[in-house]
Amino acid sequence: MNGTIPLSQENLQRLPDGVSRPEYDRKNICAGIVHVGVGGFHRSHEAYYTDELLRTGDFSQWGICGIGLRDGDRKIASVLEQQDYLYTLIIRHPDGRIENRVIGSIVDFMMGCDDPQAVIDRMASSETKIVSLTITEGGYNVDSTTGEFDFSNPDAQHDLAHPMQPKLVFGFITAALRKRRDQGLTAFTVQSCDNIQHNGNLTRKMVLEFARRQDPELADWIDANVKFPNAMVDRITPVTTQADIEYLKNEFGLDDAWPVTSEPFCQWVIEDDFVNGRPPWENVGAQFVPDVTPYEKMKLRLLNAGHSVLGILGSIHGHQTIDGSVSDELFAGYLRQFMDAEATPVLDAVEGIDLDKYKDTLLERFRNPNIKDSLSRICLESSSKLPVFLIPTIKDNLERGGSIRYATLVIAAWCLYCDRGVDRHGNELDIVDGMKASLNEAAAKTSDDPLSFLKIQSVFGDLASNERFVKTYTEMVGRLYQDSDVAQQMRNVMSNG
Ligand code: CS2
């Protein structure tokens, strides 16, 4: 289409019907929320809920200031700045219906690596009530062998030595909280929106351990004055593609350099534990509960683990997307069996939720043919995801004598995946993982030492010394290395239960 409309505040009025837009007065919005990690998920979830809230009335103290801490955030910074921080959320329903909605809740963006002081000041400003995070499972800087803050990370060392020029989010939060304390201001709430069990507790632990090393008195103040609510977050958000950008151009003449696509489903269950106020997100569908534990466990162990099951097995088999894998009956059946036989028996009851229905809904969501969620996104950083999503289920089942075969095949297949790096047709897999080299090195020794992959303690903990697990794993990895037809191994597992 000729003469496209570049997305900007000024051009909002020119957008055609079919694209809904923020009608609220964005000029007068204060950023009560400072958010670190403005990826697709933040933009389809917290920013979406907040936009929905801003559309319903005068909540002008609850805008969002996005923060990028690393060089890699430069692209989103410049796209958002060019578009007056606006972007389009394209919500794709399974029946083909599409909702297009310009989100206006982000009102500013700053780069921590360019001007750390400005970001510290922003977090420390009395306007800021919440610092929220989507920094990924791996971003919490946990030493996975000890579970403590990893001070061996050179960036952590740097932050200890240069408290006012931090690189890690923990350095920024600590510096900002120090400033608030010194100025006698109320603290802010630190709100994690990552897929981690007890994400608030973990954030608290990491912030406190870092702060204590730097300044024990400040750590005591943080301990007494800052809140870190746990939350379960959910909305499937695939990586934006060129086709999404073209779609907006062709259908609406809208030029948006970085829209986001998501499914219609979304859920946010939050512990109501804030120190300096919060938006009434419950007005727009979020749930506030006293204890989020059963909700997060259910989501991580069914949805996220289900994704990993399809992601690893499907990649080796040659599937490309989640909907592609579940349209294969073998994969859909295997996933359901994994959920029923291994994941569900170690879940706690969730009040008001029928787990069977929840699983049916998950499969429906995975089947959405208009969400082309790539397996490469799912498998991204598996070394940080599997210890949260899948391995705890194996450990729980080992303890209670439950089935482990479905999940163990995924671990064995992951070894093959890291070793060979190709699907069954010989096509190279797009593997992105901070531990890629060490995973590959350990996996490549499997023929000499079948347990070499399992010995990566930071990922598997002590699984390599569990006799029952080792027996099942060795058998499976042995078979897979003889014949990498993962579908055949899946059928074996299904017929042996
Ligand atoms: C996915 C999640 O990262 C993953 O492997 O399972 O991004 C998932 O799509 C979201 O948690 C859905 O809420």
UniProtKB/TrEMBL annotation:
Domain Mannitol dehydrogenase C-terminal: 291-478
Keyword terms: NAD, Oxidoreductase
Residues covered by the Mannitol dehydrogenase N-terminal domain: 32-282
Pfam family, any one: Mannitol_dh_C
SUPFAM superfamilies for this protein: 6-phosphogluconate dehydrogenase C-terminal domain-like (SSF48179), NAD(P)-binding Rossmann-fold domains (SSF51735)
Coiled coil: none
PANTHER family according to UniProt: MANNITOL DEHYDROGENASE 2-RELATED, MANNITOL DEHYDROGENASE DSF1-RELATED
Name of the protein in its database record: Mannitol dehydrogenase family protein
Organism lineage string: Bacteria, Pseudomonadati, Planctomycetota, Planctomycetia, Pirellulales
